[in-house]
Amino acid sequence: MAAPPEQPGNTARAFGAIVDLHQRSIYRYLVRCTGKDDDAQELFQETFLRAYRAYADLPADANHRAWLFRIATNLVKNYIRGQQRYRKVFVADTPLPAPGVQPTTPEQTFHSQETAHILLNALGALPFRQRTALIQRQLEGRAYREIAENLDCSEDSARAHVYQALKKLRADWQRVTTGEERRCHANPEA
Amino acid sequence: MPTRKRNTRSCGFAEDDLIAEALGENPQGIQQAVRSHLTVCPACAQRLEQYTQVRFQLGSLPASEAGLAAARRALNTQLAQLTRDTRPRLVLSLWHSPLGPLRIGTTDKGVALVAFVSPDDPESGAERLGEKFAQFSFEQAEGNEGHTALTRKLEAYLNGSRHALDWVIDDGLMRSDFQRQVLQAAREVPYGSLTTYLGLAERIGRPTAVRAVAQALRYNPLPIRIPCHRIVGTTGSLTGYAGNKIALKRDILAVEGIPTVPSRSGFAIAQDRLYVGRQAERTFCRPGCEASQGIRAGNRLFIASRTRAEEIGYAPCGVCRPDRGPFYMETEPGLF
Question: What are the φ/ψ torsions at residue B322 (nearest 5 degrees)?
Fold first, then answer.
């Protein structure tokens, strides 16, 4: 066994290696869940700080990736809740734009940055489970079994969350890509 | 294939099968069914195209490298703080003193540790120290000015030119309030003077706790700075020091000008060459003076010289008149 005075150094080093290994996936996951760089950075730090505090008690054979994703997902859950509360309190008077419907002109619609924007907005409108399940599946390539574990649900539910999310995104996508037409229907005078 | 809710399209085809097709999750049988349906149903083909596009666009969403780098930097700062803050630092240095190698440990509050190190293997103690004081993180004080100043004062003490080793103390390594009390009482024994274990026990009002007092002194985390060497056995025997380093105790006593003689159990103070101080009366006698016979151990000090006795403001005894001239050649303090 290592002598106690060396232990924190060892722990910090071992933990640093874990961060090195998983930081990219976790960061990407958080950016896509929050849609905002600065929020993602904050959750990123919080994820690894929580992980560091729990690291000493982690079983030696633990799956670090699953463990980190679980912490990140819990933080995303709180984050989404906080946002919903914020919207209710502060923005309730102004009606929210329908998900994905951006005040865009048709010329801009197919711009690639715009595409990302639309998708991020659509993602941001998804409920917590659908959002995190879809991102884990589509962007991080995690198995339904892993997602099920991450969200405390069955594999079938995990799959259903992903499919539901895709249905909504597709609908938004269609609405935006054919936006001009629809807007004419909605506002005949425009 | 797990059963799932079939969201049926107007053409009678399941929406989920289209999604699964876009995700490449269909088993072969269904894949074939989907493909043959697509050849006859343009609406489903269009829908599949939309799913495929959404999937493709999702995959190309950006995640900035700069954002990750910034997050990692901030995390590193916080982690460093976390590891630093969990335990206080103990800054260690090794000084090759005339008494042998000495390890000095300081915290933010002051000197917490003085340890005699085996001269044969000065590095060996460091590991044991780590086990003993796991509450600390250790750091080597290389070129640390604070430590240099400490050793300079200690050096002056050991060559007799400095009497008060006024290092600021951190009592964090003391084991109990009892030990703090004992060590505080030991600090009140003046330079060049001695008392006994019983004397110290009486001074703290625990006259029967002689052995406990001795143990508290034995585990003094700050030897020399807290002068546990100024406490000897009731018979005058040096009894022990930091375990069994009696020669060391003799050397430190010699630094303060206290004469010792070889005895059956090692060394004893030379009582016939030490003045006897009476603390309550603030007077001092020649050895063997009848005025100091039978006084309580808690009231008695052995004092190395007239100079020392006068320094602490003791008056010469009116019976034996120690002020009338030295009764022997007094040793000057300083061994080295």
Answer: -65, -10
Superfamily of domain B85-173: Methylated DNA-protein cysteine methyltransferase domain (3.30.160.70)
Which long-range contacts link B9-15 to residues 24+ away (Cβ below 8 Å)?
Answer: B9/B43, B9/B44, B9/B47, B10/B43, B11/B37, B11/B41, B11/B43, B11/B44, B13/B37, B13/B41, B13/B44, B15/A167, B15/B47
Contact A160, B5 (CB under 8 A): yes
pLDDT (average), residues B53-65? 82
Report the distance separating Cα B50 and Cα A100, nearest Å: 15
Please report, for the domain that includes residue A150, its CATH number.
1.10.10.10
**B134 chain-A contacts, CB cut-off 8 A:** 4-5
Contact B71, A44 (CB under 8 A): yes
First CA to last CA distance, chain B: 90
Name every residue in B having a CB less than 8 A away from some CB of A: 2-5, 7, 15-16, 19-20, 22-23, 47, 50-51, 53-55, 57-64, 67-68, 70-72, 74-75, 78-79, 82-83, 86-87, 127, 130-131, 134, 136-138
pLDDT-derived band at A183 (thresholds 50, 70, 90) equals very low
Scanning A28-47 for CB atoms below 8 A from B yields 28, 31-32, 37, 40-41, 44-45
- CATH number listed for the domain at residues B176-336: 1.10.10.10
- Is the domain of A91 the same as that of A114? no
Q: How far is CA A61 from CA A14, A54, A149, A161, in A?
A: 14, 14, 17, 29
Other C-beta atoms closer than 10 Å to the C-beta of B56 total 10
- The pLDDT tens digits of the residues spanning A61-116 come to 889 999 999 999 999 999 998 887 665 443 333 333 444 444 444 444 445 667 77
Count of C-beta atoms within a 10 Å radius of residue B269? 24
> Measured between alpha carbons, how far is A162 from A160 in angstroms, rounded to an integer?
5
pLDDT at B124: 61
Quick one: A49 and A66 in the same domain?
Answer: yes
CA A30 from centre of chain:
5
Q: Are B270 and B259 in contact (CB under 8 A)?
A: yes
Residues with Cβ < 8 Å from B222, sequence gap 6 or more?
B111, B112, B113, B114, B169, B173, B183
CA–CA separation, B70 vs B201, rounded Å? 62
Highest mean pLDDT of the ranges B74-83, B200-209, B288-297: B200-209
How many angstroms separate the CA atoms of B126 and B113, rounded? Answer: 12
What residue numbers bound the domain in which A165 lies?
A: 103-190
